[in-house]
Design a protein that fits this description.
The protein is mostly beta strands. The chain contains 1 helix and 17 strands. Strand 11 and strand 12 form a beta hairpin.
Length: about 280
């Protein structure tokens, strides 16, 4: 559910945020619970600069101080049930996190599916899997047509695909040791069937419709302003200069690399053989 703010100040005139109803709240308060200290790590910022102080990635700098949450993408704690203690906010990603309390006392964070809530039980198992949201198993053990996320590309390396808010993939088929998956982009791709994935769609599906409302809220995220190329001089950008307003004519980056449709993927890339249908087709 979305929350549209009344225009009491200029910053709230167009502000649209998610209600975050899935998050676990402290009793009697609206604030979310504090993260688990043992699962936090120091997060150092570069501001987009290299060791010489030169900008190598534009539009980065500032922002609120953050800690990194150690997320379990491998789900390699097998056949040990865990209870969902809470659903928490993570400033480092668009999806929510679920804190798992295993019966042996260990705690881990995982990416929270949309149907998961505090008090549920999840398990990661290859022999006796549960087909409920948040549970993890091998692709060869999943029913065809399953809605999944957190998909490995190489067995044991950890999830690499479908990790952002609101996304989900679908298991379409299996043959010759590979599973065919339809990704959110529409691409059909083969992945080894011994790779692991989790059931369900990822939480916080309303993340893409939020409106920040003011420039300062974007600065809190560590994002600095972006200047249009057509507003620059010819020495600064290929779109710069000229009389009056124009669209830049040939779409290019500041380093004269073609953009907006120009394909940069190598034609002889080895992993291209695993792509059955391109996302653009």
């Amino acid at each position: 559910m979305l929350k549209k703010f009344r225009p009491m100040t200029p910053g709230t005139r167009k502000l649209v945020l998610s209600m975050n109803e899935q998050l676990t709240r402290v009793e009697g308060r609206r604030a979310t619970i504090k993260p688990t200290k043992s699962l936090l790590a120091v997060k150092k910022r570069t501001g987009g600069r290299n060791n010489n102080g030169h900008i190598t990635c534009r539009h980065m700098g500032g922002g609120h101080k953050q800690h990194y949450r150690l997320v379990d993408f491998k789900r390699n704690k097998l056949d040990i049930p865990a209870k969902v203690a809470s659903i928490e906010y993570d400033p480092n990603r668009s999806a929510f996190l679920a804190l798992l309390n295993y019966v042996d006392g260990e705690k881990r964070y995982i990416i929270a599916p949309s149907d998961l809530k505090a008090g549920d039980t999840v398990i990661s198992s290859d022999l006796n899997p549960l087909y409920t949201a948040g549970c993890s198993t091998l692709l060869k053990s999943m029913p065809l047509g399953s809605v999944i996320h957190n998909i490995e590309m190489i067995p044991g390396r950890g999830a690499k695909l479908v990790r952002s808010a609101g996304l989900s993939a679908q298991l379409m088929g299996r043959a010759n040791g590979y599973a065919t998956i339809r990704l959110p982009s529409g691409e059909m791709r083969m992945v080894p069937e011994n790779c692991r994935a989790s059931f369900g769609a990822i939480s916080n599906s309303e993340h893409n419709v939020r409106v920040e409302g003011k420039a300062g809220r974007t600065r809190w995220k560590g994002i600095r302003p972006t200047v249009r190329g057509t507003a620059m001089n010819p020495v600064d950008h290929p779109h710069g200069g000229g009389e009056g307003k124009h669209n830049g004519y040939i779409p290019q980056t500041p380093w004269a690399m073609k953009t907006k449709g120009y394909r940069t993927r190598g034609k002889r890339k080895v992993s291209s053989r695993f792509i059955i249908k391109d996302r653009r087709v």
